[in-house]
Specification:
Helix content: 40-55%
Number of strands: 5
Structural class: alpha/beta
CATH architecture: 3-Layer(aba) Sandwich
Distance between the termini: 23 Å
Radius of gyration: 16 Å
Strand order of the largest sheet: 2-3-1-4-5
Number of domains: 1
Shape: globular
Strand content: 5-15%
Number of helices: 10
CATH class: Alpha Beta
CATH superfamily: P-loop containing nucleotide triphosphate hydrolases
Largest sheet: 5 strands, parallel
Length: 185
C-alpha cells in the first residue's frame, strides 16, 4: 500500500521549507527510496501552487482553481500508481480541502504545522519583497485559514494559540478519522 503525506498548515507556515529541508531526515524510508530509484523529492511532490503556475502562469491566479484541484488529484493518483509515495504540499486547513484523500487506498499521514498567522503573514511579505515566486496570500486569507484550522483541526474556534502536548493530542484525536498517522513538523 502506498503512502500520502499531506501538509496541514497556514500559508507561510513553513510547509514547503520543511519538505525541502527536513522531510527526508524525518522519513528516512523516503530518502532511501529516492536514492534507490534515482528520483528527487520533486518527483513525488504534488503542489497546487505549482500547478497554478503551470496552468495560469501565476501561482496566485485562482481563476482556474477547480481545474487545478482536479489536476492535483490526478497527479496524486498517478504518483501513487508509479511510486507508492506522494507528498501533497498544500494548506489543508479545512476538512473539505482534505476530503479528496478518501478516494485513495493509501496510508495517509498528516504533517501538522503550528499555526501562527502573524508569523505567516510576515514570512509571506518578506518572500514577496525578496522576489520569491510564491503565492501572494493576503492577510485576510491567512486569517480565514486560521479560522478553518481552529474549526477542523483543533475543533475549538476559541483556541488561544497554546501549542503543547495537550493540544497535539487533541489534534491527533481530531484527525483520526481522516489520517492513519499524525506527525508534528
Amino acid at each position: 500500500m502506498g503512502k500520502i503525506w499531506y501538509s496541514i498548515g497556514l500559508s507561510g507556515s513553513g510547509k514547503s521549507f520543511y519538505y525541502k529541508n527536513r522531510f527526508l531526515e524525518d522519513f528516512k524510508e523516503v530518502a532511501d527510496f529516492l536514492v534507490e530509484k534515482g528520483l528527487t523529492l520533486e518527483d513525488i511532490r504534488v503542489c497546487p501552487d505549482d500547478i497554478r503556475r503551470e496552468v495560469c502562469g501565476d501561482v496566485s491566479d485562482m481563476s482556474k482553481d477547480g481545474y487545478v484541484w482536479k489536476l492535483a488529484e490526478k497527479r496524486v493518483k498517478d504518483k501513487l500508481d508509479e511510486y507508492d509515495y506522494v507528498l501533497f504540499d498544500a494548506t489543508g486547513t479545512s476538512k473539505k480541502a482534505r476530503k479528496f484523500l478518501n478516494k485513495f487506498k493509501a496510508e495517509k499521514i498528516a504533517l501538522v504545522f503550528k499555526p501562527d498567522a502573524k508569523l505567516s503573514i510576515s514570512r509571506i511579505s518578506n518572500d514577496i519583497n525578496e522576489g520569491v515566486d510564491r503565492s501572494k496570500v493576503p492577510p485576510v486569507a491567512v486569517y480565514a485559514q486560521l479560522k478553518a484550522y481552529k474549526e477542523s483541526v483543533i475543533c475549538d474556534a476559541n483556541w488561544d494559540g497554546t501549542w503543547d502536548k495537550v493540544i497535539k493530542k487533541k489534534i491527533s484525536e481530531n484527525l483520526r478519522d481522516e489520517f492513519d498517522k499524525v506527525f508534528f513538523a
